[in-house]
Structures are given as C-alpha cells and as structure tokens.
Amino acid sequence: MDQQREKFSSRLGFILISAGCAIGLGNVWKFPYITGQYGGAAFVLIYILFLLILGIPIMVTELSVGRASQKSVAMSMDVLEPKGTKWHLFKYFAMAGNYVLMMFYTTVAGWMLYYFIKMSAGGFVGLDKDGIAEIFGSLLQNPTLMVGFMIAVVLIGFGICSQGLQQGVEKITKVMMLLLLLLMVILACRSLFLKGGEEGLRFYLTPDFSALKEFGIVDVLFAALGQAFFTLSIGMGAIAIFGSYIDRSRSLTGEAIFITILDTMVALMAGLIIFPACFAYGINPDAGPSLIFITLPNVFNAMPGGRLWGSLFFLFMCFAAMSTVIAVFQNIISFGTDLTKASRKKVVSINLVAIILLSLPCVLGFNILSGIQPLGEGSSILDFEDFIVSNNILPLGSVVYVLFCSMKIGWGWDNFMAEANSGKGLKFPKSIRFYIQWILPLIVLFVFIMGYKSLFF
Ligand code: PFF
Ligand code: NA
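YS: structure for the whole thing
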C-alpha cells in the first residue's frame, strides 16, 4: 500500500503556499524590468487583461487536474487520461520546464541573498549612483561569489523541503508570505512620497498607447503573455501539485482568483516601489534584469534609516524568491517519488546535486561564458532560459491543460466541471465551454506564433 499522501493542515496553508509559489522573482524582479522595457502602463494593462481572460481559467484547470489525480504532473495525466491516449507524455515537457526554471531562478535568488547581506553589512553606505551600479557589475564578474550564493539558495531550499510538507514547506512559507505582504505595503507607501517620483508614477500608471507602436504591438503582447503565465506559475504543473494536497471542501475558481489577486498586488506594489525611484534618481527604467539592483540601493541611501529598510527589503525579496524555490523543489521531489520507489531522502540528494550543476551555465553566462548570446547581441544565458520557460513551455503547456480539461479525447469537460466545482465557493461557469476549448487556446497560439515571427523573421 502507498503511504498516505501528505496534506496541508489548513486552507490558509494552501492559499499562502500557492501564493508563495506564484509570488516570487516574477513579481519583484521581472515584472518591473519588463514593464520598464516595454514602455510602462500600456504594458501593465495588457498584462492584467491576460491574467483575467487567460490566467485565472488556466489556473482552475491546473488545480483541478492536481486535485482529481492526487499526483504531481509526473503522473497526473496517466491517472486521468482516457485509455489509449498519449496525454501522459506531457510530463516530460512539464518536468523539463521545472528544471529549466530553476536553472536561472537560483542565480537571481542568489543575487537577492547577496544584496541582503551586503545591505545589512553597510556595503552601500555613502555610495553614489555609479558606485551602486558598480557593485552589481562586479558581482556579475565574480563567478565564485555567484556560485556560492546559488549553492546557498539550493541548500536552503532543499533543507526546508526535506522537513516535509507541513513541517517544512507549509510552516516556513506561511510566515514568509505574511511578512512579505506587510512589508510591501509599507515600502510602497514610503516610495510614493519620494521627491521627483511623480514622473515615474505617470510612466507606470498612465497608459500611453503610442508606446505599443514604438515597441511593436506583437512584441508587447508576446512579452505580456509570457509574463502573465510566468507570474502565476501556470503551464507546467507547479500549481497543480498544490491542488493535489487539498480536499474537496472548496471549489477551485474562488481559490484561483484569490491567488491571482495576491500575486497581482505584490507585482503592482513592486512597480510602485521601483518606478518613482528610477525617475527620482535618473535611472532609465529599461535597464533590464539589473533594474532592481541598481535603483533601489539609491532609495535606501537617501532614506532615514535606509540601511535597516534596505536590509529588510532584500530579506523579503529573499523570502519571495525562496518560497517559489521551495514550491518548485517540492514539485520536483514529488516527480521523483511519483515515478520511482526511491525514498524522499534519495530523491532530495540526487536533485540537490543536479540542480547545482544545472544552474552553472546561467551563473557563468555573465562572465566566463559571456560570449554566448543565444538571443542576439547583449543577451545572456539567463535571458535564454527564461525565454524557454516563459515564452514557450508555459504558454504551450497551458494550452495542453486547457485542452485536456475540455476535449472529449482528454479528461473531458464534465469531469473537469465536477472537480472544479465541488465544494463551497464560486463556481466555474459551465456556459463558457466554447471559450475555454476554442477561443482561449487560439488566443494563446496566435500570440505565440506572431511573437515568434516578429522575433526571428
Ligand atoms: N511564479 C513565479 C514568480 O513569479 O516568480 C515563477 C514561476 C514558478 C513560474 C513556478 C513558473 C512556475 F512553474
Ligand atoms: Na508571480
């Protein structure tokens, strides 16, 4: 007999862990820099539209598959698919996605950890704008330092996971998320009152649709699509796993909306913290992945008690990043235990080594391997791995989930409806089947194909 499957101890646990999986570097690091690259508020609007019309329904399909199968994506479709169909092959695609995500996520999480330590040690005190930018530059040039922090992230992540679902993952993540939500509100309020920040707010909040022309509407849509899926963690079973740890007392639409609202709040607040700061300190918002690291220390330097606030800020950025790392590690560990009879301990040790090795290319891409620029002039291995996940695996994987839940030759609409709608709370509307089965996948595929065309042809 299988050992009894682990469960969350409470609904709050489920919501906060799922939010912890969703809320991460995608909100506090990627959302601000992509918004900056694509011209601000108009991008934000499209992103929110995609969350509403694509993200929420897709999240409901994923949670349903997880809850109905009681398995990770490594076995969920094997359990639910009609006999003779091949949906289960999706596992290879989805599992690969989880690994590729960690291949760059651990590096950026390591940057956050480094900044936390540097900030609390007073390493930014008295530096001007150029001195601050210099610190990030020299971090990238130092492979040993970056590898060290990347390994620390992997060790902490697996350390917490190996304590088990309730004692490790749930307990730690719950506290981290509650603190994070609180601190974001405080800092956003402070940043709003920054002198010279109004222009940043305008950039961030007043849509200027000529920006869409300037950057190319297709490119903006493609970037917003990838970011919407990335931020919600949908399309490769990372959210589905948490559906497998809950019972049927609540219907899933309300839970998906709740998670999306929390995630969106944190992203929007990160923007409120960063854009006024960019304009107040004359830093171009299109700086890319370095944005948060070269803008925010300026703000903290100029703020009374800035060293303390800055340390807290980066500590909480570590929380955001770690809660996602822990969630994805938990998912990866359950691939191992779903697919083999190996013990949790053995699965953890193998993956620990594997993920450290797999994370090396991203780290080295900024120094020793900086000649490799897979997406063209100036791009990095990090950009490439992110592109593989955000713009390929997540959108295509999401389409697979949606079709699996709506097509007769898949798990099917009736099974999906029964699962999604069992329990108290908001029900998924039966009447939008046509939209789910046809329109939604077509929107995703259309943006995907057009995006590729404009990028490469
Ligand atoms: N949602 C996470 C973030 O915003 O940082 C990233 C992520 C996690 C994406 C898990 C995809 C995933 F499966
Ligand atoms: Na997110």
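YS: worth flagging: The mean pLDDT is 94.
IM: good catch. Also Residues 21-22, 24-27, 101, 230-231, 233, 236, 238, 324, 328 surround 4-fluoro-L-phenylalanine (ligand 1) (CB under 6 Å).
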